[in-house]
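Please, structure for the following, as C-alpha cells.
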Amino acid sequence: MTTTLYIPMDTAAVAAGVEHLIPAIQAKAAQYQQPIHIVRNGTRGMLWLEPLIEVQTPQGRVAYGPVQCADLDSLFEAGWLQGADHPLCHGLTENIPYLKNQERLTFARVGITQPLCLDDYQAHGGWEGLQQALRYRPQQIVDIVTESGLRGRGGAAFPTGIKWNTVLHAQAEQKYIVCNADEGDSGTFSDRILMEGDPYTLIEGMIIAGLAVNATRGYIYVRSEYPIAIRVLEEAIQRAYTAGYLGKAILGSDKNFDLEVRKGAGAYICGEETSLLESLEGKRGEIRFKPPLPALEGFMGQPTVVNNVISLGSVPIILAKGAEFYKNFGMGRSRGTLAFQLTGNLKYGGLVEKAFGVTLNELLYDFGGGSASGRPLRAVQVGGPLGAYLPQKDWDTPIDYEAYSAMTAMVGHGGIVAFDDTVDMGHMAQYAMEFCAIESCGKCTPCRIGSTRGVETIAKIRRQEQPEQNVQLLHDLCDTMLAGSLCALGGMAPYPVLSALEHFAEDFGLQPATTANH
C-alpha cells in the first residue's frame, strides 16, 4: 500500500535542508520496498520542527520532526510509515498543543492543502467568498468588510472598509488593487507563509477587493528576498487564469480582473505604501507627500487600494462566513485574528494565529516555551524594528491596537522578538536608531538627519559623556522625529529608543530618573 507523506515546500523547510532530505527518503523507501507518494504542502508554522514530515495514516496525519538524513534508518526501522512511535514523533499533527490552541481563520488551509492545487483549495472552502461577492453590489461587499471590523494587518491598523469605501466612491475610469507583500520587519514571516502555503487565499482576496471598488487590475509587490513565494504566486496566478478566476468574465460574470506579481526593490522603506507605489511605477522608493491619499491618487495617479497580504488574505473568509462570524473573534476595536510570529530567544519559534486579546505571556510561554537559552526573558520587541521594547510588567496587557497604543507601543505586523536577561538594551536602542538611519529614504530632514544624530547621541550616553545633557538632547531629537517625519519610519523610530531608556535605564549607565523627559 502506498503511503502519502506531506513534506513542506516553504522557505523555512528549504533552509533546514528539506530538498536534500527528499531524495534520501525516496531511496530509503525503495530500499525497504515501501511505496510512497510525496505531497509538497506549506509549513504548519512550527518552525523549530522543520523539516516536519507528516505521514498519512487511517487515524490522520502523524508528525515527525525535525527530520534529518541521519534519522531515516531509525525512522524506517521503527515503522514511521505506519505512524509508529519514535523520538521524533509528535503524534497526530492536529493534536499538537501549539496548533490545537490556535484560532486559524486566515491560515486555516496552510500546511493542510497542496498550495497550487485548485481542487484542494476548493475542497477546503476556497472560492466561497468570491462566489458570495459576485452576488453582491460593490457597496454591499464594502459594508460587509466594514462591519467585520477588519483593519490593516501591515502595521497602521487603518479600517479596511473605510479605505475601500473611499476608493469605491472615487471617480476614475481605472482603479487598482495593490498588495503590499514587502515584508521587511524583523521577526516577521506570516506574509511569506501565506503566499507560499495558500496563494489562492491572497488571489481570492484581491479579486474580491477589485469587485468591491470596481478595480480591474491588481499587483502583488513581493520583496525580492522571497524567491519561493514569487514562484508559487506566479504559478498560482497562471492556474487561476486558466480556470477562469482571473481575466475577462470571471466565472462567467461580467466582471474582469487581471493580476500580476512585481518584485520589490530591496528597500525597507518600500514597505510604506507611497514608497511602494513609487517603486511600482519604476521610480526610486521614496515617500510621497500626503494628501493626496493613495485611495484617491495612488498607482499612476489613480484611486488605489493598498493592503497587506494578511488583510487581503482575511477577506475571503469574511465574505464566505459573514461579518458577524469574523467580528466574534477579538476584543474592543480589534476584531478577528492576527498571525503572531514568535522569534528571538524562544524555545519554540513559529507562527501562531490567535484572536486579539491574547497576552504576550501566553504567546511567550504557552506557545514559545520560554527562552531557548533557559535564562529568564527580560524584554520583548513587538511590531518590528520600530516597535517598543516591552518589560515584563507589560506582558499581561491584552494585545489589541488601542491597548498597545496607550502604552506607546504598537502591535504592527505581529512580529515578536524575545530577549533574555543577557541582552544589552543600550546596544539594542542604538541598533534600532541605526536601522532607521540606514533605511531612511532621505526625503525628510527629521528622519534623515535626526536618526544619524540619534545614533551619535545614544553612543555618547552609553560612553557616559555628559549623560544628562545628552538624554535631554535625545528626547528633543525624538520629539522632532515623532512630530516632523513624513512617514512612520522616522515617526516611530523613537519608540524602541525611548522605551529602552524608560524601562532599562541601567543598561545606559543611568538612574531611572535621569531618563525622564525634562
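The first helix runs from residue 11 to 15. Residues 177 and 218 are 4 Å apart (CA to CA).
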